[in-house]
C-alpha cells in the first residue's frame, strides 16, 4: 500500500524488541478456543438485552435475565462429543436463561434450562484455566500495543501511510488511535496517531473518504485509553468499510504519555448502533453495551454489562 507520503521526519524506532507471545495466526486465544467470550470478572446481562450470542467463559459471577447463552449455535448436540456453551467460576443468578450446549458451573440450582437436555448431563467437566487465559490475553495485548503504527487515519477521516520509508515488514496493518494526553510527549510521534474523531466519536462514519482500507493482511486497531477513564464509542458504525477484514480491536490502559499501564483499568461504553465483529482484546476493560448492535465475534474483557437503556451514570464506573 502506498497512499500518501509524509514529511520525511526521522526518529528512533520505538518498538520494543518483544518476542511475540504466539504468532497471531495460531494464537490459541483467538483461533483455537471453545469460547467466543471470555470475561475475567462479572458478567451481567440486564433483562431483555440479548447482546452477545456466543459461548461464554466467566471467571466471576454470572447474572442474567431472559438471555440465551450461545444463541449463535442453536443446533448443539450433546449426544456425541460434548459442546460447551457456558462456564462460570463464580455465582449464578439467572432467570429464564437458556444455554445452548453443556455448562460447567458450581451451582446449577438456578434458572438455567438447556436447549438440548442431554447437555445437562455434563455440568461440571470442562476446566477453564482463567489465570492462564488472562496471562495470554494481557501478553498479547501488550505485544500488539508495542507495535509501531504503519497506517494512519488523519483528522477528517483521510487514510495515509504511517511511515516515511516503507521498509517495514510488519505482518499486520497497525493503527494506533487517541494521541496521548501530554501531546508532544507521547511514546510515539504525534503524527503516527490516528484520529478517533470521525471513526469512534463521529456520527455517520462510512470509512476513510479517500480510499478503502487495505484488508489483505490482518488489521490491528490499537486503542489506548487513559487509565480510570471512560471511552465512549459513539459512532453508529465504527466498522464501516471493514466488513471483509480480519481485525483485532486491542484496547489497553495507558498513562498520560501513552505508555501501557499494566496496573490500569478503564471503562469502554459501546454506544454504537451497529455490530462490531472480529476479535476484541480488552482484558483490562469493563465493557458496557447499549441495547443496539453488539459484538458478533470474539470478546475478551475484564467485566461485562449490557444495559437496557442508553442512560449511563457514575454507578457504572470502574
Ligand atoms: C489447539 O488445540 C489443540 C487440541 O487441544 C492443541 O493440541 C494445540 O496445541 C492447540 N494449539 C494452540 C496454538 O494452542
Ligand atoms: C459474586 O457473588 C457473591 C454472592 O452474591 C458475592 O459475595 C461476591 O462478592 C460476588 N463477586 C464478585 C466478584 O462480584
Ligand atoms: C448428534 O450426534 C450423534 C452422535 O454423533 C448423532 O448420532 C446424532 O444424529 C446427532 N443428532 C443431531 C440432531 O444432529
Ligand atoms: C446455589 O444457589 C442458590 C440459589 O441461588 C443459593 O441459595 C446457594 O447458596 C448456592 N449454593 C452454593 C454452594 O453456592
Ligand atoms: C443422562 O445420562 C444418563 C446415563 O447415560 C441417561 O440415562 C440419561 O437419559 C441422560 N439424561 C439426559 C437428559 O440426557
Ligand atoms: C470446571 O470443571 C473442572 C473439572 O471438574 C473444575 O475443576 C472447575 O472448577 C470447573 N469450573 C470452571 C469455571 O472451570
Ligand atoms: C446520519 O444518518 C441518519 C440515517 O441515515 C440520518 O437520519 C442523520 O441525519 C445522519 N446524521 C448526520 C449528522 O449526518
Ligand atoms: C485508578 O483508580 C484506582 C481506584 O480508584 C486508584 O487506586 C488508582 O490509583 C487510579 N490510578 C490512576 C493512574 O489514577
Ligand atoms: C508512563 O509510564 C512510563 C512507563 O512506565 C514511564 O516511563 C513514564 O514516566 C510514565 N509517564 C507518566 C507521565 O507518568
Ligand atoms: C449513547 O447514544 C444515545 C443514542 O444515540 C445518546 O442519546 C446518548 O447520549 C449516548 N450516551 C453517551 C454517554 O454518549
Ligand atoms: C443475537 O441474535 C439475535 C437473534 O438471532 C439477533 O437478533 C441479534 O442481532 C444477535 N446479536 C448479535 C450481537 O449477534
From TrEMBL:
Pfam families: pAdhesive_15
Domain Choice-of-anchor A positions: 33-304
Matches recorded under InterPro entries: Choice_anch_A
Signal peptide (residue range): 1-17
Keywords: Signal
Full protein name: Choice-of-anchor A domain-containing protein
Amino acid at each position: 500500500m502506498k497512499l500518501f507520503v509524509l514529511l520525511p521526519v526521522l526518529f528512533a524506532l520505538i518498538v520494543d524488541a518483544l518476542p511475540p507471545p504466539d504468532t497471531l495466526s495460531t494464537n490459541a486465544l483467538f483461533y483455537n478456543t471453545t469460547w467466543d467470550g471470555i470475561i475475567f470478572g462479572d458478567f451481567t446481562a440486564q433483562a431483555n438485552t440479548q447482546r452477545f450470542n456466543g459461548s461464554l467463559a466467566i471467571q466471576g459471577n454470572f447474572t442474567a435475565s431472559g438471555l440465551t447463552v450461545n444463541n449463535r449455535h442453536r443446533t448443539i448436540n450433546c449426544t456425541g462429543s460434548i459442546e460447551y456453551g457456558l462456564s462460570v467460576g463464580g455465582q449464578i443468578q439467572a432467570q429464564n436463561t437458556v444455554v445452548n450446549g453443556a455448562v460447567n458451573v458450581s451451582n446449577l440450582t438456578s434458572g438455567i434450562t438447556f436447549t438440548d437436555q442431554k447437555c445437562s448431563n455434563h455440568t461440571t467437566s470442562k476446566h477453564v484455566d482463567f489465570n492462564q487465559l488472562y496471562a495470554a490475553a494481557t501478553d498479547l495485548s501488550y505485544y500488539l500495543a508495542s507495535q509501531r503504527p504503519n497506517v494512519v487515519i488523519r483528522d477528517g477521516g483521510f487514510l495515509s501511510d504511517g511511515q516515511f520509508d516503507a521498509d517495514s515488514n510488519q505482518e499486520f496493518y497497525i493503527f494506533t488511535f487517541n494521541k496521548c494526553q501530554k501531546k508532544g510527549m507521547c511514546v510515539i510521534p504525534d503524527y503516527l496517531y490516528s484520529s478517533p474523531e470521525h471513526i469512534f466519536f463521529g456520527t455517520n462514519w462510512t470509512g476513510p473518504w479517500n480510499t478503502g482500507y487495505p484488508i489483505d493482511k490482518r488489521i490491528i486497531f490499537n486503542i489506548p485509553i487513559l487509565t480510570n477513564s471512560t471511552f465512549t464509542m459513539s459512532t453508529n458504525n465504527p466498522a464501516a468499510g471493514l466488513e471483509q477484514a480480519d481485525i483485532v480491536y486491542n484496547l489497553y490502559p495507558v498513562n498520560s504519555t501513552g505508555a501501557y499501564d499494566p496496573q490500569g483499568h478503564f471503562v469502554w461504553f459501546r454506544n454504537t448502533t451497529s455490530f462490531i465483529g472480529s476479535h476484541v482484546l480488552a482484558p483490562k476493560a469493563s465493557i458496557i453495551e447499549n441495547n443496539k448492535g453488539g459484538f458478533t465475534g470474539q470478546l475478551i474483557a475484564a467485566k461485562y454489562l449490557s444495559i437496557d437503556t442508553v442512560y449511563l451514570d457514575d454507578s457504572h464506573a470502574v
